[in-house]
Design a protein that fits this description.
Two copies of one chain form a homodimer.
Chain A: H1 4-29, H2 35-38, H3 40-44, H4 57-61, H5 67-70, H6 75-81, H7 84-125, H8 129-133, H9 139-143, H10 155-189, E1 199-203, H11 213-224, E2 229-236, H12 239-264, E3 271-272, E4 285-286, H13 287-311, E5 316-324, H14 327-335, E6 346-349, H15 365-385, H16 387-396, H17 399-405, H18 410-415, H19 427-446, H20 450-462, H21 467-473, H22 481-501, H23 505-526, H24 539-563, H25 570-591, H26 593-596, H27 600-613, H28 619-623, H29 630-634, H30 637-649, H31 652-658, H32 677-685
Antiparallel strand pairs in A: 1-5, 1-6, 2-5, 3-4
Chain lengths: 690, 690
């Protein structure tokens, strides 16, 4: 195992690199030319406008105020200043609650570390086991459980500590669950009217030989929710159309690129060298002409495809968004079973429109089940066979082995030198180093946004002509919950596992949580743009994963103590996971409903309030376009945008008059269907209808 | 291990005792005097009347038709003749589905046994491992997996068989789940109007300083289910009253006993010897006078207690039965969350009134959680420490050890003699013998109903005066689902575990399933009276337990094969439980909703039909008394019965007029509450109201 000075050296290296990142960030962020990379959120909010527009030429791109370089860490207190309610308002509840995970880490591990260093470290330190063992050891080993002789009564300390840590973790988890649930409920209650409050996603609509999907949906809900049904919107399979639109956009970028090139050097028309396969052969053509023609071709294809989707019943998926007259009606429909067969007419809350993954909307139930099976089996075998590389890494993690396996590293290792000869696999040191590289330097690198920075300047140079282009080139990105959360969970696992065994790891993890909290708070305030708002629906998963980490730590401790001939502690230790699982079940019953259900009382309250405030509300008009496939909104954006907006504003009565419902194959008697939307959009873009 | 002839001897003994039970049953059941013990179900249905009423004196008590003794097994085909739909009509769906568990056993194990005996037994038999092992062995051992040498390729047979058995079991389970779900849905759809279809049980009503429970319930549901709420009934804590009523009944029995005694011997008044503590001291008193006085005292106590319950708000529990105008409204309320806090205003389907356990109705959520924790911990430690007696029994199950531990058994063992010296613990033979004792002879004894037979004749002799008394002395009992189902599960477990290891066990289990099916079908048709009807709501548990047995058998086989040096089969075997768990999840998603939810479509269909058929239905009157505590119904049964019935028949309008709601402390403005019921009953028993 590494000595304290080795770890100190590694810490110095990582702290230096983290500092380097912060310094680079501090310099880059105050350059006006990078303003859109480091403050995109404010641009999106409309609270900041381009610094390039005014001032002297040089100061447009470079910051010449040298005093601002001196205060290069002042973004940190700034990031912490915005109070939480304002943060929720600014960046959404999801982001605010995501930050609370880091805070939870601090809340759990700071008292645990304090207790471990005041109680457990002295107990470990005042033994001589390692001195008598003949093994090479260091000061760090003396701090760990390895320094206690087998069968010693001192293991009672570790047992009591395990209980204390479990209790504290559970207590913090419970408190946090309570706070987050209250935040969610308050957020939902104070929310403005949103389409998803009134809408339910219905899947697996059974095929019917006599009726179209739209008619079937209408009849089913008119019969089974007669007092509440308002309207519905069927789901189209517009995947091909999306592809075409995406391609058109790409080609448009190339067109702009060549047009810019031509403008800068008008003497020479840019040529496309080879138009054949992979640009390997074919004739040279004029680039601007070529891409203009391509765009025309794609525009034709797009309108043909749109025609096809509208007229072909096969492009309608067995899914629909059904809207209700009240939140109460939607809450009832989303939480109940509609039909005798539980695999058809599946209802669930509609996610908010931005949160939809349209491509996957129509996967049949049986495919979903099979996919889940495949994922479960793959997960099992991945975990099972992942032990092989882990075993290899573990054997490598022994410095001597590294020398043997990778002899070319020998000179380097003979330098980082005292560690050579250590015979104990340096697992705890491995994780300490890992924490410093991934959790300290890695988090510091996050703030630099190297990839967006480069991409922005490339786009800015080649594509941007107008202020609108520049806005599009700005890529704020979103908070990477899918990658960030598992990283946090790893640190929770490490912290809980090593809390009793090698408490020296804890300070490093605390630094990770603190640093990440500041960095991500800064990024959420200044950079990321939230893609959608789930109102912290992810919290039950976060909670469950910390519980799993806790149970893993308890089982590992049980295994460790049984090898240490402290087997009499087993019954006491086995109670811990039982109690933890019970605690989880308690929390699930007590708090989880706030995240998966929508109480009728709340729905009724909002409905009543709204009826009193806006008795003449045109809800149908509000909901009509909400769940339209985004591709119908983006098609021919330039020429339909205005017409669309106009169309959206008008009450539904006019809309149903304007388009001939009789000519569409899925005409509906009650006028509740919004099926003829693409038709309507198309129509409204024509001059004689507008 | 025991030889074939040992097992043959045990089988002969058990078959003989089963036969003896059947013979005794055949003789006893055709005696007219036992008619009410062996055919109570028909008396309850009113389809059979006492044979004592007519015929000669002797033939009233004894069957003198000797030809009927010859056909002593003819009840067996008779029990099988009633078709299933008629059985459901006769004894309810619960009983019919319970019988299907035995049929499922036959369906699973007959093909498995066939396959095992044609494929696996020959593979086991044609080895010589045991002959070369130097161990004492018998023919039965040669049929089992023990006869295959370690690491042999023949284990592939067992692996393929394990897959085949799992596949067949899962297939049968899936088919059965489908059938039972369809039966349940059909049963529910064709059911008559029942109070529980319209009613929801609400628990954990939060305390309110300003309103009584009844008012609170009414306001809450008027606000949150304005179009559907009909009425409600609060729940009283009448446990003390129940106790008093029970005591009165007991003392009434004693009174009748002494009155009968006096009538038979009018010259001597029966005396109670000692009235003091445990009858040890005190004065002798006239028994009839003493018990008459006691009954009067209790009657007074009962009416005081009833008064107290009606007037004391503390005797109202925070629970209520809320009824809705439509099944749709009840289905919605039962399946949704009412309030932001998921631990208050808990709603669930009301069980049918007979299925209620009134004493437990008001346990708060937190106590429920704690009770579950205690049960979980107790269950864990019971299982954990149960290994100790199991280990003792296992060591005893070795014949040599029995001789050593219990030397006084030696002479007996030296006789049951060939088995002595067997060194392999006879586990499979143990279970074969167990099956024969518990599953063959035990089931045969069930049909004799020895305890009810004796009890009936004792009561008949000492207490019965009128035909009504005789009816009360008749105790049909109910099908013992709580004891019967675990017994079946044990045989499922044994069958699945030994199917691959020692298939010789299978025929014994098949005989158990067949015999039980006939016996319990007979008992359900002729004896048991169903207490309530859950419409086969227990099936998901039955399914889950067989799945658990299947997984246990797969894990045990994996362990066994790894000790047999056939470790290469582990990855293939580990796939089995994964697939089984997935199968279970699939079944859960596909079929379980039929058992726990009530689809809105079905509810709407029944509502619409009913509205068309009976447009003037007085639903409030129908529901008013349904969920009254049974003790209010049974108090002063003799004098209120008629008045009660009369009262129940009248429309609710009259009832609310007749009782002064203003004088009750929980008067309700909307007249929806049925809270004043005890009051009303009391009132209607008075002559000036009747």
């Amino acid at each position: 195992m590494a000595t304290l000075s080795d770890i100190g050296l590694a810490a110095a290296i990582n702290i230096l690199s983290a500092f380097a990142f912060f310094l680079a960030f501090a310099i880059l962020r105050i350059q006006p030319v990078n303003d859109r990379v480091y403050f995109p959120k404010w641009y999106i909010k409309g609270l900041r406008c381009s610094p390039l527009a005014n001032g002297a030429f040089a100061s447009k791109f470079l910051n010449l105020d040298f005093r601002s370089y001196a205060r290069f860490l002042n973004w940190m207190p700034a990031a912490l200043q915005m109070p939480e309610p304002e943060l929720i308002d600014h960046a959404g509840l999801d982001s605010a609650v995501y930050l609370r995970i880091y805070l939870l880490g601090l809340k759990i591990f700071v008292p645990i570390a304090f207790l471990a260093f005041t109680v457990m470290v002295p107990v470990n330190w005042t033994n001589n086991t390692l001195e008598h063992s003949g093994l090479t050891f260091s000061e760090i080993d003396k701090l760990s459980i390895s320094n206690i002789p087998n069968g010693s009564d001192r293991y009672w300390t570790h047992l009591v500590m395990a209980y204390a840590f479990t209790f504290w973790t559970c207590y913090s988890l419970k408190q946090e669950y309570e706070i987050v649930a209250a935040m969610r409920l308050h957020f939902l209650a104070s929310e403005h009217r949103r389409p998803d409050q009134f809408t339910v996603l219905v899947r697996n609509i059974p095929p019917d030989p006599d009726e179209s999907v739209s008619e079937l949906v209408e009849h089913f809900f008119l019969v089974n929710h007669p007092d509440h049904y308002l309207s519905h919107q069927v789901v189209y399979n517009a995947n091909k159309l999306s592809g075409l639109v995406k391609e058109k956009k790409k080609i448009q970028n190339w067109l702009v690129y060549y047009q810019n090139k031509y403008e800068r050097n008008p003497s020479k028309r840019p040529l496309l060298k080879k138009t054949g396969f992979l640009g390997l052969w074919g004739d040279s053509v004029d680039a601007v002409d070529f891409y203009t023609a391509e765009i025309e071709r794609l525009s034709r294809d797009i309108s043909t495809e749109r025609e096809k989707i509208t007229n072909n019943p096969k492009s309608i998926m067995p899914a629909a968004f059904v809207s209700f007259k009240t939140r109460w009606g939607a809450a009832v429909c989303a939480q109940t079973q509609q039909c005798r067969n539980p695999t058809i007419w599946l209802t669930e809350w509609a996610p908010e429109p931005r949160d939809l993954y349209w491509e996957n909307l129509a996967i049949p139930f049986v495919f979903l089940t099979i996919r889940r099976l495949i994922v479960a089996v793959a997960f099992f075998f991945l975990t099972f066979f992942f032990m092989v590389p882990i075993a290899i890494v573990q054997s490598l993690a022994n410095v001597e082995s590294i020398e043997k396996t990778l002899p070319f590293l020998k000179p380097i290792i003979e330098v980082i030198p005292k560690t050579i000869g250590a015979s104990i696999p340096m697992k705890a040191t491995f994780f300490i180093t890992y924490t410093m590289v991934d959790g300290w330097a890695g988090v510091a690198a996050e703030i630099l946004r190297l990839k967006p920075l480069i991409m922005y300047h490339l786009k800015n140079f080649f594509l941007v002509k107008t202020e609108k282009d520049r806005e599009e080139a700005m890529d704020p990105g979103t908070i990477g919950f899918n990658t960030g959360e598992p990283q946090i969970q790893l640190y929770f696992l490490l912290g809980l596992v090593y809390a009793v065994v090698t408490p020296i790891l804890l300070p490093f993890i605390i630094v990770f949580f603190g640093l990440s909290y500041v960095v991500f708070r800064h990024q959420i305030i200044n950079v990321y743009n939230q893609e959608y708002e789930s109102a912290a629906a992810f919290w039950p998963d976060v909670h469950l994963r910390i519980i799993v980490a806790l149970i893993v730590s308890q089982l590992l401790l049980m295994g460790l103590l049984s090898t240490k001939e402290a087997a009499s502690s087993t019954p006491l230790l086995i109670t811990l996971p039982v109690l933890t699982i019970w605690f989880h079940r308690f929390c699930k019953e007590r708090y989880e409903p706030a995240f998966v259900r929508y109480p009728l009382q709340e729905a009724m309250m909002k409905d009543t309030l709204e009826r009193a405030r806006e008795p003449n509300l045109n809800l149908k008009g509000f909901l009509q376009n909400a769940y339209m496939h985004p591709v119908f909104k983006s098609v021919d954006e330039d020429d339909t945008d205005v017409a669309m907006e106009e169309w959206e504003m008008e009450p539904s009565l006019v809309a149903t008059k304007r388009t001939s419902k009789r000519s569409t194959p899925f005409s509906s008697k009650h006028g509740g269907s919004s099926l003829s939307l693409p038709e309507a959009n198309k129509g409204s873009s024509k001059p004689d209808n507008a």
